[in-house]
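G., the chain you wanted modeled:
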Amino acid sequence: MKLISDNLLPDVMERIRSVQRQLKNDSIDAILVGSNANIYYTTSRFFRGYVFIPVSGTPVWFVIKPNVFEEEDNVVYIRKPEMIPAKLTEAGISLPAIIGYEEDALSYSDVRRLQAVFPQAEYRNASPALRKARMIKTEWELARMREDGVHQSEAYRKVTHCYKENMTDLEFQIEIERILRLEGNLGFIRTSGNLMEINMGSVIAGDNADVPGPYDFTMGGAGVDPSLPGGANGTTMKRGETVMVDMSGSFNGYQTDMTRVWRIGSIPELAYKAHECSRSILRECEKMGVPGTKVSALYDKAIEIACGEGFDRYFMGHRQQAPFIGHGIGIELNELPVVNSKSRDVLEENMTLALEPKFVIPGVGAVGVENTYVVTPEGLRALTVFPEEIQEL
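Predicted structure as tokens:
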């Protein structure tokens, strides 16, 4: 086995170095990566197996299948993880005294098995190190997300044409899913955590927006089956309602998150004013969002504006209110940081996050805007560029 880091994509090595800095900060000698999202993050590939990343030096891909990486110098084929220590020793790589595993991403049984692979080593939870590394995007990653934003916006331009009178919210969502897939959407959203599930996104019409859900999403929705209680519930969309479209921006292994609102017929002035309040919150956060700003300050500003305009009882839900206004995004929909009052994170350049100050108006539906942003020295720059006004179906 030859370990030639020059054969890896320069961007992959930049991400590896980011992980290694976190490992050094946490006093971890090496990490054995085994989750889908983090294998992709550390290789720009996907395979069944593991990525061994030492605190310094070149990573090793221990691949179980598929056997299609013969051109890669840092690939070792194995049948099971118990073979890893011997392969490292054969390559002259010292076994770690302290090793990290993804306790937040792998099952308990998987972690226990990997602990037995290195019985001599003290083990640590390295999930926080990986999540922190992934908060800051490389230029290659940002290019993927800009591409996502362009495709997502192009699909949203066709949303109005998907609507037919007396159709259900589910029928409407299916038509939107179709245009997204034709635009190149992968049809799959990676999320972090075993308590998070979603299909290609949510279309929530009328009072379905006021139905509480079990997931950590800003809007709930009843869904069409108890097995997946979220989003469209199959009811006919009616005049006087809003329709919130929060669909997938996953086109290349990365994601953008964007929400826009349409209306059917006329809606009350209260709904328009709440929607404009959402836009005001975003404008203020965009100005505040420079490197060095506390993430919690964005949440505090949103609360200040919403309460100041008298919309606090509708903010981030009505019957059930979400305790955050945004989240990190990238390979997974819900990455760090979480934009809430308890966050200890500080904005850094090239951090990406989705901000979604939303309101639920009983009898009308949800209003508000969500954009995906990158942190720059001049503030937050939107990667999802599409008209924000409430549009008519």
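The chain is about 30% helix and 20% strand.

Shout if anything looks off.
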